Predict the 3D structure of the following.
Amino acid sequence: MNKMKHTNSAMRGLALVTLFLALAPVAFGQVIRDFSAVGASQGVFLQWTTLREAGVSEFRVQRSFDGQRFHTIHTVRPTGSNHTYNYTDDDLFKGPQQTYYYRIEIASNEDNLAYSPIEEVALNFSGIRRTWGSIKAMFR
């Protein structure tokens, strides 16, 4: 009898572990192979490549100014495993020095979320500012 109680407890524990794994969020390492964000003259160029996209409902490109509070700036529907996605963030505040933080939020069909590592990009738009100052000076 004691042995039967132990077996039932173990089976219930196994069932709970199985249920937990079935409900666990999509793991980043299982979906995205790599993610990069690079400053360019037009803004910030983001690129990520997937391994497998089974169960993914969408990828959300998110930006932050402090690395803590992120906001979705673009949404991409998955197109298939082993695919490379690109997005250029050209809606930026062009101050003399600005740091932006990016990540990809991975939403599953079951409404679970996973996140890529955060990429930090520091941009310097002083050349643009100087050019604008030169143009303004021509009309004085």
Observations:
- Residues 2-23 form the longest helix (22 residues).
- Confidence is low (pLDDT under 50) at residues 11-26, 128-136.
